Amino acid sequence: MSKKGPLTPELLRKIDAYWRAANYLSAGQLYLLDNPLLRKPLAPEHLKKIVVGHWGTVPGQNFIYTHLNRIITKYDLNMIYVCGPGHGGNSIVAQTYLEGTYSEIYPNVSQDAEGMKRLFKQFSFPGGIPSHAGPETPGSINEGGELGYSLAHAFGAVLDNPGLVAACVVGDGEAETGPLATAWHSNKFLNPITDGAVLPILHLNGYKIANPTIFARISHDELEDFFKGCGWTPRFVEGDEPVRMHQQMAAALDWAVREIERIQQNARTNGDTTRPRWPMIVFRSPKGWTGPKEVDGLRVEGTARAHQIPVSVDPEHPEHLKILENWLRSYRPEELFDRNGALIPELQELAPKGTRRMGANPHANGGLLLRDLRIPDFRDYAISVPAPGEVEGQDMVELGKFIRDLLKLNLEARNFRLFGPDETMSNRLEAAFQASDRCWNADQDSRDDHLAPDGRIMDAMLSEHMCQGWLEGYLLTGRHGIFNSYEAFIRIVDSMFSQHAKWLKVCNQLPWRQDISSLNYILSSNVWQQDHNGFAHQDPGFLDHVANKKADVVRLYLPPDGNCLLSCFDHCIRSRNYVNVLITSKHRRPQWLTMEEAIRHCTHGIGIWGWASNDQGCEPDVIMACCGETPTLEVLAAVTILHKYLPELKIRVINVVDLMKLQPHTEHPHGLTSEDYDSLFTVDKPIIFAFHGYPTLIHELTYRRHNKNLHVRGYKEEGTITTPFDMRVQNNIDRFSLVIDAIKRLPQLGNRGSFLIQLMKDKLIEHKQYIFANGVDLPEVRAWKWNDGKGIY
After folding, report:
1. What is the DSSP code string of 714-767?
2. Which SS3 state, helix, strand or coil, does residue 3 take?
3. What pLDDT does 321 receive?
4. Neighbour count for residue 609 (Cβ, 10 Å)
5. Cα separation, 744 vs 723, whole angstroms
6. What is the largest CA-CA distance in the chain?
7. 3-state secondary structure of 144
8. Sheet holding 622-627, edge to edge
């Protein structure tokens, strides 16, 4: 082999052999059930009957991983590997098996022929592991089942990790997704003094599932200009001849590490936070490299045909068996593994040792590094509530003070950040800026506000994808954070939430995966507060999406006032392994509960508000239930009307904070037992339920309950630019409509309720006429207060 380049002939030979071993193990995972070392001629009975998996990206990733091992050892790097290409899981499994991590975590998959057989069988096999680098794979923090998030995860991982390098392989198909395309700009948020480094490696193998990739079909100059325009310094490694490619890659990685060290040394020695041009590598290799060149007269290697299974072996194609055998034997496994099936010692020596192995790096199992936050006492931020509804407050403003001090208390530990897409101020968390600036390492001018390279508030990029991806990477490497956003536009990351929830669900079944901090969403500017932005900003559907996920992972909270929000937030920020969603108000609203009352109420998650009810000691005639700050306001206003005009009615008011309380306890750990649910809602009395979101969600959660006399009002896709109260009227969740609903469900009233129904209909007409003439809501709506249940009607 050539002496040219940074690798000596001996090291080059060993690296190439290690790469062959990884490729052999990766291909074996696709096909083999038996005969793992090919010590017998390959026969049909040695093969899986159904072959499922992918090959195209695998040899390139094995090449990269093998070379990263070399620089980890040479430079004593603390490095994790982020696998972006979707279905390269067999590559990462093979590599962690070769380095020994896999067998340490899964002793049954031992470093011998029998262990190799188990390694092969489990891949994409019932009872086994998936074809992507999921939670089961040591060293993984990126679920490859959906593309686009690897680079954001890598940047989140290195925030506040000054000694960490995240090597992120980006597939060229993945690079066409919106989140990944945006993520190249994450370098504007990296502080070279206090953060680590991301080394992106764009893997150009030319094709997606069936089509060429854009980056592979533009000129070298255009590709280079693109990345230079994004603020990177790219270096290219291109070709298909292994010896030359090994030398190129070794030189490129040596250069990249030296550049990272130069940048960080300058920044840390001289206090220079000027945004540098970080290095990156563009690695161009054939798709399905080293696999079958041709099958049935059609080119495979270097084409989209190599994407999944490059050669099918089945009764219809018996001649393919020989092609497969020749391919597998081309890696010469007899040179790579000893008679017991273990990797030969001279190749074992190439892998890093201990926690320097990328599969064993504790940053990729973040719970190992997780430390508790220093958390102020949320009671210190209590809103004084002399009586229910007597004072008003802005829930998010009060929470902002708590978050401000949470930031202050954890500045030294550098393990907490606030994330949001340019909405922290809009969502009324402005107090947080008293503790920290926005993170920003691009150019600034005198007109800018609260921008700094060491800012802890990640809200200077208008991308929900980036906020979510950064936060996930931050959490998965053992830190804490929260994500605040508009309720309607959190839907942009529906799919990212799903992937994270699935990740947590699987991790809960893996004892070696340590607990991580929960993913906490604070969603304000909600559906009932979007009268000025209109229909486009009105969507409470994230609740439905989250509620469908595994019950041991998701939690949904709708605090009705500021003290309840503080109590719920404190609970969420302390929790582990959950996705917590808080739906909150940012506008001035009546405050209902004292802090001690709020703590009790939120601890229960649901309860009768005795001060708003008059059924003590007797059966209620009707139950007025509410969930969410606006529904709570409207239900209490409706109750004051009913108290005034039909004082003989026995009304029970129930408020729900923890939405999952409505599910049976057999379906969600927070769910009420049937006995407890019936004691609140009875088994037959009419329930008028005002809900923050889509009414169908309440029906889905309660369909097993005994009381079927349930009538839910919520958002029904009606909205426009209008007044706040008219938004409620359009969706029949307003107080007047709720009164009508209640009366219609009480046949015992006979005609005694007819006059009140007519009065409420008249009020609705009066309301419409008034807002069309004046542009604001009726004075009695704007001025309404609880006043011990008397209201002003």
Report:
1. ---S---S--HHHHHHHTT-SHHHHHHHHHHT-GGGGGGGHHHHHHHHHHHHHH
2. coil
3. 96
4. 22
5. 27
6. 100
7. coil
8. 606-608, 651-656, 622-627, 687-691, 710-713
Tokens of 265: 């040394």
Of 136, 240, 779, nearest to 509 by C-alpha is 136
Characterize the bridge pairing of strands 606-608 and 651-656: antiparallel
Write the CB contacts of 71 (distance below 8 Å, at least 6 apart in sequence): 77, 253, 254, 257
CA angle 252–256–257, rounded 5-degree value = 120
Nearest to 455 by CA among 586, 273, 270: 273
pLDDT at 535: 86
Q: Taking a C-beta distance cutoff of 8 angstroms, is the pair 128, 122 a contact? A: yes
Query: How do 480-486 and 416-419 pair as beta strands?
Result: parallel
Q: How many CA atoms lie within 13 A of 643 on its CB side?
A: 23
Mean pLDDT split into 10-residue runs, the chain, 793 residues:
78 98 98 97 96 95 98 98 91 98 98 98 94 94 88 98 98 95 98 98 94 95 98 97 97 98 98 95 97 96 94 92 97 97 98 98 98 98 97 97 98 97 94 96 92 95 97 98 96 96 96 98 92 85 96 97 98 98 96 98 98 95 98 98 96 98 97 98 98 98 97 94 95 98 94 94 98 96 90 72
DSSP assigned state of 391: S
> How far apart, in Å, are the Cα atoms of 757 and each of 424, 694, 760, 764?
43, 25, 5, 11
Residue corresponding to tokens 């940047």: 155
Q: What is the rounded CA–CA span in Å between residue 387 and residue 80?
A: 55
With 0-12 CB in 10 A as exposed, 13-18 as middle and 19+ as buried, what is 52? Answer: middle
d(CA 62, CA 90) in angstroms, rounded, equals 10
Q: What are phi and psi of 452, to 5 degrees?
A: -160, 145
From the list 660, 662, 544, 657, the residue with the least C-alpha distance to 601 is: 657
- Contact criterion met (CB below 8 Å) for 235 and 282: yes
Domains of the chain: 14-364 (3.40.50.970), 378-589 (3.40.50.970), 613-789 (3.40.50.920)
Exposure on the CB side of residue 704, measured as CA atoms within 13 A: 14
Contact call for residues 374 and 410 (beta carbons, < 8 A): yes
Residue 87 is predicted with a pLDDT of 83
Sheet holding 164-171, edge to edge: 78-83, 164-171, 197-204, 278-284, 232-238
Return the residue matching tokens 């009164």: 739
Integer CA distances (angstroms), 258 to 67, 158, 248, 284, 638, in order: 15, 18, 15, 22, 69
Give the C-alpha separation, 17 to 522, whole Å. 51
Find, among 166, 140, 141, 161, the residue nearest to 79 by Cα: 166
* Residue 78: closest CA among 313, 261, 287: 261
Vertex 82: Cα angle to 77 and 83 (nearest 5): 135
Structure tokens at 778: 């009726």
Exposed / middle / buried, residue 792 (Cβ in 10 Å: 0-12, 13-18, 19+): middle
Q: DSSP alpha helices (H): ranges in 230-349?
A: 242-270, 320-329, 333-336, 345-348
> Among candidates 453, 531, 468, which has minimal Cα distance to 720?
531
Our separate counts of H helices and E strands in the chain read 25, 22
C-alpha 325/C-alpha 320 separation (Å) is: 9
Q: Which helix (H) or strand (E) holds 481?
A: strand 480-486
Dihedral sign of CA atoms 183, 185, 187, 191 in order: negative
Find, among 237, 240, 251, 79, the residue nearest to 164 by Cα. Answer: 79
- Side chain identity, residue 115: G
- Model-level pTM? 0.96
d(CA 454, CA 76): 27
